[in-house]
Amino acid sequence: MEFMNNYPPYYEVIIRESHLDSFGHVNNAAYLVLFEEARWEFITNNGYGLNEVQKLQKGPVILDLAMKFKKEIKLREKIRITVGLVSHEWKITKFKQEMIKEDGSVAAEINLTFGLFDLQTRRLIEPTSEWKKAIGLEG
């Protein structure tokens, strides 16, 4: 079955040997890496990649996460990882991501709480207009 569309934004990947554990399915730590790759792709495509983080000295920091494993993902499976804004209040933003198998079933999901971190002051700051655009708060 083909994936339906590009909403919410998504990142596609084929599961490689390096993603697997000794049971032959995706290692729990690899899920975090894959979810993070999808988030970086999302914010980079919205104009706030690593170059911007280094130039502006402001970037995302994860404050909390909860992950659920629902279905096994094995070698060479193609998955789609969605990135969706759930809420934003003051300095705190929440995203939900899902790993979706080609049959449309959700294999894993993660709920994240994060903020914009100032690398100079080492504190959370209110989001800048560039950051708001990057996370989908502004067009």
In short:
The protein is 22% helix and 40% strand. The chain is of the alpha+beta class.
Class computed from helices, strands and strand pairing: alpha+beta
Give the number of DSSP strands.
6
> What is the count of structural domains?
1
Can you tell me the CATH class?
A: Alpha Beta
User: In the CATH classification, which architecture applies?
Assistant: Roll
Number of helices: 3
First-to-last CA distance: 32 Å
Overall form? elongated
State the helical fraction: 10-25%
Rg, rounded, reads 16 Å
3D structure, described in words:
22% of the residues lie in helices and 40% in strands. With 139 residues, it is an alpha+beta fold. The chain has one domain: Hotdog Thioesterase (Thiol Ester Dehydrase, Chain A, Roll), CATH 3.10.129. Strands 1, 2, 3, 4, 5 and 6 form a six-stranded antiparallel sheet that branches. The longest helix has 18 residues, at 28-45. The termini are far apart.
Topology of this protein?
Layout: E1 10-14, H1 28-45, H2 50-56, E2 58-69, E3 78-89, E4 92-101, E5 106-118, E6 123-125, H3 129-134
Antiparallel strand pairs: 1-3, 2-5, 3-4, 4-5, 5-6
Keywords:
single chain, 139 residues, alpha+beta, Thiol Ester Dehydrase, Chain A, six-stranded antiparallel sheet, disordered N terminus
